[in-house]
From TrEMBL:
Record-given protein name: Phosphoribosylamine--glycine ligase
Catalytic activity: 5-phospho-beta-D-ribosylamine + glycine + ATP = N(1)-(5-phospho-beta-D-ribosyl)glycinamide + ADP + phosphate + H(+)
Species this protein is from: Mycolicibacterium vanbaalenii (strain DSM 7251 / JCM 13017 / BCRC 16820 / KCTC 9966 / NRRL B-24157 / PYR-1)
Annotated family: Belongs to the GARS family.
Superkingdom classification of source: Bacteria
Keyword Lipoprotein: no
Occurrences of domain ATP-grasp (ranges): 114-319
Keyword DNA-binding: no
A matching Pfam family: GARS_C
PANTHER family per UniProt: PHOSPHORIBOSYLAMINE--GLYCINE LIGASE (PTHR43472), PHOSPHORIBOSYLAMINE--GLYCINE LIGASE, CHLOROPLASTIC (PTHR43472:SF1)
Length: 430
Protein backbone atom coordinates (compact mmCIF):
# COMPACT_ATOMS: atom_id res chain seq x y z
CA UNK A 1 0.00 0.00 0.00
CA UNK A 2 1.39 3.40 -0.96
CA UNK A 3 1.75 5.95 1.78
CA UNK A 4 2.40 8.97 -0.42
CA UNK A 5 6.16 8.61 -0.07
CA UNK A 6 7.15 5.88 -2.51
CA UNK A 7 10.91 6.16 -2.04
CA UNK A 8 11.79 6.32 1.60
CA UNK A 9 15.25 6.79 3.09
CA UNK A 10 15.32 5.08 6.48
CA UNK A 11 17.93 5.73 9.18
CA UNK A 12 18.12 2.92 11.77
CA UNK A 13 19.72 3.88 15.10
CA UNK A 14 21.55 1.14 16.98
CA UNK A 15 24.30 -1.43 16.64
CA UNK A 16 22.92 -4.86 17.51
CA UNK A 17 21.64 -7.92 15.67
CA UNK A 18 18.14 -6.47 16.22
CA UNK A 19 19.11 -3.47 14.07
CA UNK A 20 20.72 -5.82 11.51
CA UNK A 21 17.40 -7.72 11.33
CA UNK A 22 15.45 -4.46 10.98
CA UNK A 23 17.71 -3.39 8.10
CA UNK A 24 17.34 -6.72 6.29
CA UNK A 25 13.54 -6.59 6.59
CA UNK A 26 13.46 -2.92 5.52
CA UNK A 27 15.57 -3.80 2.47
CA UNK A 28 12.82 -6.18 1.32
CA UNK A 29 10.31 -3.29 1.24
CA UNK A 30 10.03 -1.95 -2.35
CA UNK A 31 9.27 1.55 -1.05
CA UNK A 32 12.54 1.75 0.89
CA UNK A 33 14.99 3.33 -1.50
CA UNK A 34 17.93 4.00 0.81
CA UNK A 35 19.12 2.58 4.13
CA UNK A 36 21.47 4.14 6.65
CA UNK A 37 22.50 2.98 10.09
CA UNK A 38 24.21 4.69 13.01
CA UNK A 39 26.48 3.45 14.41
CA UNK A 40 25.88 -0.11 13.12
CA UNK A 41 28.45 -2.92 13.19
CA UNK A 42 30.64 -4.88 10.79
CA UNK A 43 27.64 -6.79 9.41
CA UNK A 44 25.26 -3.87 8.90
CA UNK A 45 27.93 -2.15 6.75
CA UNK A 46 26.99 -4.59 3.96
CA UNK A 47 23.32 -3.50 4.05
CA UNK A 48 23.34 0.23 4.80
CA UNK A 49 25.46 3.37 4.69
CA UNK A 50 27.07 3.58 8.07
CA UNK A 51 27.57 6.71 10.21
CA UNK A 52 29.11 7.40 13.61
CA UNK A 53 26.74 9.17 15.97
CA UNK A 54 26.19 9.59 19.69
CA UNK A 55 22.91 7.63 19.89
CA UNK A 56 22.07 9.22 23.24
CA UNK A 57 22.01 12.74 21.77
CA UNK A 58 18.75 13.87 20.18
CA UNK A 59 20.61 16.79 18.63
CA UNK A 60 23.25 14.55 17.04
CA UNK A 61 20.75 12.00 15.69
CA UNK A 62 18.53 14.78 14.29
CA UNK A 63 21.51 16.53 12.66
CA UNK A 64 22.57 13.24 11.03
CA UNK A 65 19.03 12.51 9.80
CA UNK A 66 18.86 16.02 8.27
CA UNK A 67 22.31 15.79 6.70
CA UNK A 68 21.63 12.48 4.95
CA UNK A 69 18.02 13.35 4.04
CA UNK A 70 16.35 10.55 6.02
CA UNK A 71 12.53 10.50 5.79
CA UNK A 72 12.09 8.03 8.63
CA UNK A 73 14.24 7.37 11.70
CA UNK A 74 13.80 3.99 13.44
CA UNK A 75 15.29 3.88 16.93
CA UNK A 76 16.28 0.38 18.07
CA UNK A 77 17.61 0.51 21.66
CA UNK A 78 15.84 1.69 24.80
CA UNK A 79 18.50 4.10 26.06
CA UNK A 80 18.01 6.80 23.35
CA UNK A 81 14.24 6.41 23.65
CA UNK A 82 14.26 6.86 27.43
CA UNK A 83 16.48 9.93 26.93
CA UNK A 84 14.03 11.55 24.48
CA UNK A 85 15.86 11.12 21.16
CA UNK A 86 12.57 10.35 19.35
CA UNK A 87 11.09 13.63 20.64
CA UNK A 88 14.03 15.58 19.19
CA UNK A 89 13.75 13.88 15.79
CA UNK A 90 9.99 14.50 15.62
CA UNK A 91 10.41 18.11 16.75
CA UNK A 92 12.62 18.61 13.67
CA UNK A 93 9.72 17.47 11.45
CA UNK A 94 11.20 14.05 10.61
CA UNK A 95 9.01 10.95 11.00
CA UNK A 96 10.32 8.73 13.81
CA UNK A 97 9.43 5.19 14.82
CA UNK A 98 9.93 5.11 18.57
CA UNK A 99 8.03 6.41 21.59
CA UNK A 100 8.50 9.74 23.33
CA UNK A 101 10.57 10.08 26.49
CA UNK A 102 7.33 10.23 28.46
CA UNK A 103 5.88 7.03 26.98
CA UNK A 104 9.25 5.21 27.20
CA UNK A 105 8.91 5.25 30.99
CA UNK A 106 6.88 2.07 30.46
CA UNK A 107 10.35 0.45 30.24
CA UNK A 108 12.57 3.08 31.87
CA UNK A 109 10.77 3.04 35.22
CA UNK A 110 9.30 -0.19 36.50
CA UNK A 111 7.40 1.81 39.12
CA UNK A 112 5.71 3.85 36.33
CA UNK A 113 4.89 0.65 34.43
CA UNK A 114 3.28 -0.87 37.53
CA UNK A 115 1.23 2.27 38.06
CA UNK A 116 -0.03 2.21 34.45
CA UNK A 117 -0.86 -1.49 34.67
CA UNK A 118 -2.75 -1.04 37.92
CA UNK A 119 -4.77 1.82 36.44
CA UNK A 120 -5.44 -0.24 33.29
CA UNK A 121 -6.55 -3.28 35.32
CA UNK A 122 -3.84 -5.49 33.84
CA UNK A 123 -2.62 -8.64 35.61
CA UNK A 124 1.00 -8.43 36.71
CA UNK A 125 3.19 -9.53 39.60
CA UNK A 126 2.66 -8.02 43.05
CA UNK A 127 5.59 -5.71 43.65
CA UNK A 128 7.27 -3.36 46.08
CA UNK A 129 10.00 -0.75 45.60
CA UNK A 130 12.77 -0.72 48.22
CA UNK A 131 15.03 2.32 48.25
CA UNK A 132 16.22 2.20 51.86
CA UNK A 133 18.66 -0.62 52.85
CA UNK A 134 17.14 -0.62 56.34
CA UNK A 135 13.84 -1.87 54.87
CA UNK A 136 15.36 -4.64 52.75
CA UNK A 137 15.15 -7.63 55.11
CA UNK A 138 11.52 -7.08 56.04
CA UNK A 139 10.63 -6.66 52.36
CA UNK A 140 12.48 -9.88 51.43
CA UNK A 141 10.49 -11.69 54.12
CA UNK A 142 7.21 -10.42 52.63
CA UNK A 143 8.28 -11.76 49.20
CA UNK A 144 9.73 -15.07 50.41
CA UNK A 145 9.00 -18.12 48.25
CA UNK A 146 6.17 -20.22 49.65
CA UNK A 147 6.86 -23.95 50.10
CA UNK A 148 9.90 -24.00 47.83
CA UNK A 149 7.81 -23.69 44.66
CA UNK A 150 8.51 -20.12 43.70
CA UNK A 151 11.39 -17.69 43.94
CA UNK A 152 12.49 -14.21 44.84
CA UNK A 153 12.47 -11.84 41.86
CA UNK A 154 14.85 -8.91 42.43
CA UNK A 155 15.08 -6.21 39.74
CA UNK A 156 16.90 -2.97 39.15
CA UNK A 157 14.16 -0.31 38.89
CA UNK A 158 15.94 1.33 35.94
CA UNK A 159 17.43 0.07 32.67
CA UNK A 160 19.82 -2.88 32.99
CA UNK A 161 19.93 -4.56 29.55
CA UNK A 162 18.21 -7.67 30.92
CA UNK A 163 21.02 -8.28 33.39
CA UNK A 164 19.57 -6.45 36.40
CA UNK A 165 17.20 -9.31 37.27
CA UNK A 166 17.93 -12.14 39.65
CA UNK A 167 15.36 -14.91 40.10
CA UNK A 168 16.39 -17.26 42.89
CA UNK A 169 15.12 -19.51 45.65
CA UNK A 170 18.23 -18.61 47.70
CA UNK A 171 17.44 -15.76 50.12
CA UNK A 172 21.14 -14.89 50.54
CA UNK A 173 21.56 -14.52 46.77
CA UNK A 174 18.39 -12.38 46.56
CA UNK A 175 19.64 -10.20 49.42
CA UNK A 176 23.14 -9.84 47.96
CA UNK A 177 21.79 -8.69 44.57
CA UNK A 178 19.36 -6.23 46.15
CA UNK A 179 22.08 -4.87 48.45
CA UNK A 180 24.50 -4.36 45.55
CA UNK A 181 21.84 -2.40 43.63
CA UNK A 182 21.07 -0.25 46.68
CA UNK A 183 24.82 0.33 47.26
CA UNK A 184 25.02 1.62 43.68
CA UNK A 185 22.15 4.02 44.45
CA UNK A 186 19.54 2.08 42.40
CA UNK A 187 16.07 1.49 43.85
CA UNK A 188 15.18 -2.22 43.93
CA UNK A 189 11.92 -3.75 42.74
CA UNK A 190 10.85 -6.95 44.52
CA UNK A 191 8.18 -8.95 42.70
CA UNK A 192 6.14 -12.07 43.25
CA UNK A 193 7.18 -14.91 40.93
CA UNK A 194 4.91 -15.56 37.94
CA UNK A 195 4.89 -19.24 37.10
CA UNK A 196 4.28 -20.47 33.55
CA UNK A 197 5.91 -20.34 30.10
CA UNK A 198 7.04 -16.90 28.96
CA UNK A 199 5.87 -15.12 25.81
CA UNK A 200 7.18 -11.99 24.12
CA UNK A 201 4.45 -10.27 22.13
CA UNK A 202 5.60 -7.27 20.08
CA UNK A 203 2.87 -4.82 19.08
CA UNK A 204 3.20 -1.88 16.72
CA UNK A 205 1.24 0.84 18.50
CA UNK A 206 0.05 4.25 17.43
CA UNK A 207 -2.08 5.74 20.20
CA UNK A 208 -4.89 3.25 20.75
CA UNK A 209 -4.24 1.30 17.53
CA UNK A 210 -2.46 -1.99 18.28
CA UNK A 211 -1.07 -4.36 15.61
CA UNK A 212 0.47 -7.54 17.11
CA UNK A 213 3.37 -9.37 15.45
CA UNK A 214 3.90 -13.12 15.87
CA UNK A 215 4.37 -14.23 19.48
CA UNK A 216 7.89 -15.41 20.32
CA UNK A 217 9.77 -16.91 23.24
CA UNK A 218 13.26 -15.92 24.27
CA UNK A 219 15.84 -17.63 26.46
CA UNK A 220 17.26 -15.33 29.09
CA UNK A 221 19.56 -17.63 31.07
CA UNK A 222 23.04 -18.20 29.73
CA UNK A 223 23.12 -21.99 29.95
CA UNK A 224 21.23 -24.96 28.50
CA UNK A 225 18.22 -25.98 30.56
CA UNK A 226 17.75 -22.39 31.80
CA UNK A 227 20.82 -22.45 34.03
CA UNK A 228 23.25 -19.72 35.01
CA UNK A 229 22.78 -15.96 35.18
CA UNK A 230 20.39 -13.83 33.15
CA UNK A 231 21.62 -12.31 29.89
CA UNK A 232 20.20 -9.90 27.31
CA UNK A 233 18.83 -13.05 25.58
CA UNK A 234 20.58 -16.13 24.15
CA UNK A 235 18.05 -17.16 21.50
CA UNK A 236 14.41 -17.12 20.45
CA UNK A 237 11.85 -18.84 18.25
CA UNK A 238 8.52 -18.03 16.65
CA UNK A 239 5.63 -18.83 16.35
CA UNK A 240 4.71 -20.71 19.52
CA UNK A 241 3.00 -24.01 18.62
CA UNK A 242 1.80 -24.43 22.22
CA UNK A 243 0.08 -21.01 22.45
CA UNK A 244 -3.55 -21.03 21.27
CA UNK A 245 -4.52 -18.09 19.04
CA UNK A 246 -7.20 -17.02 21.50
CA UNK A 247 -4.52 -16.44 24.19
CA UNK A 248 -2.69 -14.07 21.81
CA UNK A 249 -6.01 -12.28 21.23
CA UNK A 250 -6.53 -12.04 25.01
CA UNK A 251 -3.07 -10.55 25.46
CA UNK A 252 -3.91 -7.86 22.89
CA UNK A 253 -7.44 -7.17 24.14
CA UNK A 254 -6.95 -7.53 27.90
CA UNK A 255 -3.38 -6.25 28.28
CA UNK A 256 -1.84 -4.27 25.42
CA UNK A 257 -4.92 -2.28 24.34
CA UNK A 258 -5.83 -1.21 27.91
CA UNK A 259 -2.22 -0.13 28.56
CA UNK A 260 -2.08 1.81 25.26
CA UNK A 261 -5.40 3.49 26.17
CA UNK A 262 -4.15 4.33 29.67
CA UNK A 263 -1.03 5.96 28.20
CA UNK A 264 -3.25 8.04 25.89
CA UNK A 265 -5.43 9.01 28.87
CA UNK A 266 -2.33 10.23 30.75
CA UNK A 267 -1.19 12.35 27.80
CA UNK A 268 1.75 9.97 27.15
CA UNK A 269 0.44 8.28 23.99
CA UNK A 270 2.72 5.51 22.78
CA UNK A 271 3.96 5.50 19.18
CA UNK A 272 6.37 2.72 18.30
CA UNK A 273 6.90 -0.87 19.39
CA UNK A 274 5.34 -1.92 22.67
CA UNK A 275 6.86 -5.21 23.81
CA UNK A 276 4.79 -7.17 26.30
CA UNK A 277 6.83 -9.75 28.22
CA UNK A 278 4.34 -12.19 29.76
CA UNK A 279 4.01 -15.38 31.75
CA UNK A 280 1.10 -17.63 30.81
CA UNK A 281 0.01 -18.59 34.33
CA UNK A 282 -2.75 -20.99 35.33
CA UNK A 283 -4.91 -17.87 35.78
CA UNK A 284 -4.15 -16.59 32.27
CA UNK A 285 -1.54 -14.22 30.83
CA UNK A 286 0.17 -11.83 33.25
CA UNK A 287 2.76 -9.15 32.53
CA UNK A 288 6.36 -9.69 33.59
CA UNK A 289 7.52 -6.41 32.03
CA UNK A 290 6.90 -3.96 29.22
CA UNK A 291 9.66 -2.70 26.94
CA UNK A 292 9.45 0.32 24.66
CA UNK A 293 11.26 -1.18 21.64
CA UNK A 294 11.80 -4.34 19.61
CA UNK A 295 13.25 -7.17 21.70
CA UNK A 296 16.61 -8.71 21.02
CA UNK A 297 16.96 -11.56 19.98
CA UNK A 298 13.22 -12.21 19.29
CA UNK A 299 13.20 -9.60 16.48
CA UNK A 300 15.74 -11.64 14.52
CA UNK A 301 13.30 -14.60 14.41
CA UNK A 302 10.03 -12.64 14.08
CA UNK A 303 11.15 -10.45 11.17
CA UNK A 304 12.52 -13.49 9.32
CA UNK A 305 8.88 -14.54 8.81
CA UNK A 306 7.38 -11.12 8.00
CA UNK A 307 6.18 -10.80 4.41
CA UNK A 308 4.48 -7.41 4.70
CA UNK A 309 6.64 -4.38 3.89
CA UNK A 310 8.23 -3.31 7.17
CA UNK A 311 9.11 0.25 6.11
CA UNK A 312 5.49 0.99 5.27
CA UNK A 313 4.31 -0.45 8.59
CA UNK A 314 6.79 1.53 10.70
CA UNK A 315 6.25 4.73 8.75
CA UNK A 316 2.46 4.39 9.09
CA UNK A 317 2.82 4.14 12.87
CA UNK A 318 5.26 7.05 12.93
CA UNK A 319 2.87 9.37 11.07
CA UNK A 320 -0.33 8.29 12.84
CA UNK A 321 -1.75 6.17 10.00
CA UNK A 322 -1.40 2.69 11.49
CA UNK A 323 -5.17 2.13 11.61
CA UNK A 324 -5.31 2.27 7.79
CA UNK A 325 -2.73 -0.48 7.24
CA UNK A 326 -3.73 -3.84 5.70
CA UNK A 327 -3.45 -6.98 7.89
CA UNK A 328 0.09 -8.29 8.24
CA UNK A 329 1.17 -11.21 6.07
CA UNK A 330 3.52 -13.90 7.42
CA UNK A 331 5.49 -16.73 5.82
CA UNK A 332 4.37 -20.19 6.84
CA UNK A 333 6.73 -22.18 9.02
CA UNK A 334 8.99 -21.25 11.92
CA UNK A 335 12.13 -19.26 12.67
CA UNK A 336 14.79 -19.80 15.32
CA UNK A 337 17.67 -17.54 16.30
CA UNK A 338 20.66 -18.63 18.35
CA UNK A 339 23.06 -16.10 19.87
CA UNK A 340 26.80 -16.69 19.74
CA UNK A 341 28.29 -14.99 22.81
CA UNK A 342 31.87 -14.07 23.61
CA UNK A 343 33.89 -15.81 26.32
CA UNK A 344 32.79 -14.74 29.81
CA UNK A 345 29.49 -13.13 28.68
CA UNK A 346 27.28 -12.06 30.54
CA UNK A 347 30.26 -10.97 32.63
CA UNK A 348 32.90 -8.73 31.09
CA UNK A 349 33.30 -10.32 27.64
CA UNK A 350 36.60 -11.05 25.94
CA UNK A 351 36.79 -9.03 22.70
CA UNK A 352 39.14 -8.76 19.73
CA UNK A 353 39.06 -12.44 18.70
CA UNK A 354 38.92 -13.23 14.99
CA UNK A 355 35.61 -14.70 13.78
CA UNK A 356 35.69 -17.27 10.97
CA UNK A 357 32.78 -18.63 8.95
CA UNK A 358 30.28 -15.79 9.56
CA UNK A 359 29.17 -15.53 5.95
CA UNK A 360 27.31 -12.41 4.82
CA UNK A 361 23.64 -12.93 4.09
CA UNK A 362 20.33 -13.06 5.88
CA UNK A 363 21.19 -15.89 8.26
CA UNK A 364 24.16 -14.58 10.26
CA UNK A 365 23.25 -11.29 11.88
CA UNK A 366 25.93 -9.24 13.57
CA UNK A 367 25.89 -7.57 16.99
CA UNK A 368 29.25 -7.13 18.75
CA UNK A 369 31.46 -7.26 15.65
CA UNK A 370 34.02 -4.89 14.14
CA UNK A 371 36.59 -4.81 11.33
CA UNK A 372 40.21 -4.71 12.37
CA UNK A 373 42.57 -2.45 10.37
CA UNK A 374 43.67 -5.47 8.34
CA UNK A 375 40.03 -6.22 7.42
CA UNK A 376 39.62 -9.22 9.74
CA UNK A 377 36.20 -9.63 11.38
CA UNK A 378 36.63 -9.54 15.17
CA UNK A 379 34.41 -9.76 18.25
CA UNK A 380 33.63 -6.42 19.89
CA UNK A 381 30.93 -7.15 22.46
CA UNK A 382 29.19 -9.76 24.60
CA UNK A 383 26.56 -10.97 22.18
CA UNK A 384 28.53 -11.30 18.94
CA UNK A 385 26.26 -12.92 16.34
CA UNK A 386 22.62 -14.06 15.98
CA UNK A 387 22.27 -17.02 13.66
CA UNK A 388 18.80 -17.36 12.11
CA UNK A 389 17.26 -20.55 10.76
CA UNK A 390 13.88 -20.87 9.07
CA UNK A 391 11.98 -23.98 8.02
CA UNK A 392 8.62 -25.63 7.55
CA UNK A 393 8.39 -26.19 11.31
CA UNK A 394 10.38 -25.65 14.46
CA UNK A 395 12.38 -28.85 14.01
CA UNK A 396 13.50 -27.75 10.53
CA UNK A 397 14.19 -24.18 11.66
CA UNK A 398 16.36 -25.44 14.54
CA UNK A 399 18.27 -27.71 12.18
CA UNK A 400 18.91 -24.80 9.81
CA UNK A 401 20.11 -22.48 12.57
CA UNK A 402 22.43 -25.02 14.20
CA UNK A 403 23.82 -26.12 10.79
CA UNK A 404 24.80 -22.51 10.01
CA UNK A 405 26.25 -22.11 13.49
CA UNK A 406 28.44 -25.21 13.08
CA UNK A 407 30.52 -23.38 10.46
CA UNK A 408 31.31 -20.42 12.74
CA UNK A 409 34.54 -20.29 14.73
CA UNK A 410 35.14 -17.79 17.54
CA UNK A 411 37.65 -18.77 20.26
CA UNK A 412 36.09 -19.05 23.70
CA UNK A 413 32.57 -18.40 22.44
CA UNK A 414 29.48 -20.19 23.69
CA UNK A 415 25.84 -20.65 22.70
CA UNK A 416 22.80 -22.53 23.91
CA UNK A 417 22.03 -25.86 22.28
CA UNK A 418 18.38 -25.99 23.34
CA UNK A 419 16.76 -22.94 21.74
CA UNK A 420 13.20 -23.95 20.80
CA UNK A 421 13.90 -27.60 21.66
CA UNK A 422 11.21 -28.13 24.31
CA UNK A 423 8.57 -26.60 22.01
CA UNK A 424 9.79 -28.62 19.01
CA UNK A 425 9.46 -31.80 21.12
CA UNK A 426 5.98 -30.84 22.32
CA UNK A 427 7.15 -30.48 25.92
CA UNK A 428 5.48 -27.12 26.62
CA UNK A 429 1.87 -27.31 27.71
CA UNK A 430 -0.43 -24.79 29.31
N1 LIG B 1 14.70 -10.28 24.76
C1 LIG B 1 14.82 -9.44 25.88
C2 LIG B 1 14.89 -8.02 25.59
O1 LIG B 1 14.96 -7.61 24.45
O2 LIG B 1 14.87 -7.23 26.52
Amino acid sequence: MLLGCASVHVLVVGSGAREHALLLALRRDPEVEALSVAPGNAGTAAVADQYEVDVTSGEAVTALARRIGADLVVIGPEVPLVLGVADAVRAAGIACFGPSKDASRIEGSKAFAKDVMTAAGVRTAVSEIVDNPAHLDAALDRFGPPAGQAAWVVKDDGLAAGKGVVVTTDRDAARAHAASLLDAGHPVLLESFLDGPEVSLFCVVDGETVVPLLPAQDFKRVGDGDTGPNTGGMGAYTPLPWLPADVTRRIVDEIVKPVAAELVRRGSAFSGLLYAGLAITSNGPAVVEFNCRFGDPETQAVLALLESPLGQLLRAAAIGELAGQPPLQWRDGAAVTVVVAAENYPGRPRVGDVIHGAADGDTVLHAGTARRDDGALVSAGGRVLSVVGTGADLVAAREAAYATLAAIRLPGSHFRHDIGQAAAEGRIAL
